[in-house]
Structures are given as C-alpha cells and as structure tokens.
Amino acid sequence: MTVLGFFNYWVVIILMMIGLYCVIARGNMIKKIIGLNLFQTSVFILFISAGKVVGGSTPILREGVEVYSNPLPHVLILTAIVVGVAITAVGLALAVRIQEAYGTIEDDHLGDDGEDDGPFEEEQRG
Amino acid sequence: MIDIGLLTFMVVIAIAVVRTRDLFAAAMLFAIYSLLSAALFAVLDAGDVALTEAAVGAGISTILILAVLALARRYEHPTGGHNLVALLVVLITGAALIYATLDLPEFGSADNPAQVHVGPYYIEQSYPDMGVPNMVAAVLASYRSIDTMGEAFVIFAAGLAVYALLGVRPRSGRFRRRREPEEEDAS
Predict the structure, then answer these.
(1) CB distance B140–A51 less than 8 Å?
(2) Torsion angle of the four alpha carbons B161, B162, B164, B170, in this order, in degrees rounded to the nearest 10
(3) For chain B, which residues make up each domain, given as ranges?
(4) Which residue has the higher pLDDT, B119 or B34?
(5) What is the ipTM score, two decimals?
(6) B40, B64, B107 ranked by CB distance to A92: nearest
C-alpha cells in the first residue's frame, strides 16, 4: 500500500525530470517548448493527485453521492492549463521570430555568425 | 489500476518525445501524452480538467506547434550523444524531489491536509451560496473570480505579446542589412 500510495508522486517526478532534461539538453527551440509542456503537465498531475479522495466522486452535486474529491485543485489547474497554452503561444512566437531573423532555431547555430548555412548567409555569399 | 497503466504509458511516451529527432513525430507524441493525461484526470475525478486538457492541451498546443513546424525545419539538428551535465543535474534534482515525497501525505486518503482546509467548505456551501451543482464552476467563477480575472489578464498580455512579435511584418531584408556591417568588421 505504501508503494502504491507514493506511485503517483514518483511518476510525476520522473515526468518532471524528463521535461527538465528536454529543456536543458535539447538545442532545438520547439523541442525545448515541448519539454516545458511535459514539465507543466506533470505539475498538473501532482495537483490533481493531491485533490483525489479514494472512493470519492467528481465534484458535481448529485443524489446518492457522499464523498467528493476536492474541487479546489481542479480550479487551480484549469487556470494553469489555459495560462500554459498562453506561455506556449508566446514561446512559439519567439521561435518563429528567431527563425525569421537567423534562419535557424537551433541554439548551437545562433552564435555561428556566417558559418551556418542559413538562408540569409547563403544569399549574401552568392 | 487504470491509474498505474496510464502513468506508465505517459513515462514511455515522454521518453519517446525527448529521444525522437523528428519534430513532427514529437508533436504528435506530445498530443498523445496530453490525451493520456486527460484520461488520467478523468480517472482522478477531475472531469472539468480532463475536458480542458483534451481540448486545450492536446488540441490547441499541438496546432500551434504544427503551425510553427510549417515554417521551421522538420528535423532537429543532431547533437553528439547525451548531455552528461544535464543528465547529472536532472538525476540529482530528481533524487532530491523523490526524497522529499517521503514527507507527502499518502495518496487519496480523506484526512490529507489538502482535504481538510477550505475544500469541505466549498463542497458543503457552494450549492447553498450559488445554486450551481458543479462545484468547480462555482469556485472558479465566484469564490475565486479574482483569480480568473487575473488569468484573463495573462491571456490578454500573451495575445498582445504574440501580436507584437508576429503581427507587424518587418520590411523584407531588414535583418540582412543589419547583419552586414558586423560581417565586414569580422573579415
């Protein structure tokens, strides 16, 4: 029972760390944003797990149900999901802008200054 | 049981997302990950959250990523092997967090601190106060309406930011001209 009692938390942490690794180690900006989303979803799962009551029910009032899960984490996470999409949109907009300006969205190529085969440099050489 | 299966699937898919070099595949796997998490929310009694995650997380996020992929290169540039420093940082952080979970209350028991504070008040009072059977909606729109207003401000700010970044197109060749003097200096 104790292992089962902690299973959710442990998986949340594993998912969180996978997301963090994706953000740190991957140079591609789209990949970084996906990693951020992985991380974020794991936090959602942590909150929803905290609000769950075993044997409880969805917090919508109806006849014959005595135990409800806690509605407060659900509310917080609803807000967080929508805010998360807003963050994703801004991040992707930045990535598009960087792509337009530098011709690449790889971290490693941004500082190359001409050695990269981005479209702008190609045109200039020719 | 369903809970454990879904969580295991999610871990597998998350690893696949990180490992694949094909960004299109990564976007699709991420959509599957979001849908699985929506199913998990439904299992954990959070119906409203499951609906929102399925619509917004799996739907809109994926569409946004695909829209950007249409402009950028499809394949990620290969980097040599694993990043050992990142792996080390992640492992240490993960170990510390797992050590911290040992202090967390047991999953799902009704006398957890989270369940005895304001939760019971919302469950008992939201129908007499608001007359709405859906407690999540009642809390979202009434008890915590200021929160929701703050959320609306955040969305508005994000919309403005996206518009500022993408709405005004630069004149063509503006960036090229700006980079030219630098390259002359370097050579």
Answers:
(1) no
(2) 150
(3) 1-78
(4) B34
(5) 0.83
(6) B64
d(C-alpha A89, C-alpha B60), whole Å: 9
Cα torsion A71, A74, A76, A82 to 10°: value is -150
A119/chain B closest Cα distance in angstroms: 10
> Over the stretch A57-104, which tens digit does the pLDDT of each residue have?
888 888 877 788 888 889 999 999 999 999 999 999 999 888 888 888
Contact B40 A51 (CB under 8 A): no
Output the six-digit token pair for B108. Answer: 């799902």
> Please, what's the largest Cα pairwise distance for chain A?
77
**Model pTM greater than 0.90?**
no
> What was the pLDDT predicted at A112?
64
Measuring CA to CA, how many Å separate A69 from each of A10, A53, A81, B73, B105? Answer: 21, 5, 19, 45, 16
Is B135 at the interface with chain A, CB within 8 A?
A: yes
Interface contact flag, A7 B11, Cβ < 8 Å:
no
The CATH number that domain A10-52+69-108 falls under is: 1.10.287.3510
**In chain B, whose CA is at the least distance from the CA of A122?**
B176
Domain ranges across chain A: 10-52+69-108
Distance from CA of B77 to the nearest CA of A (A): 7
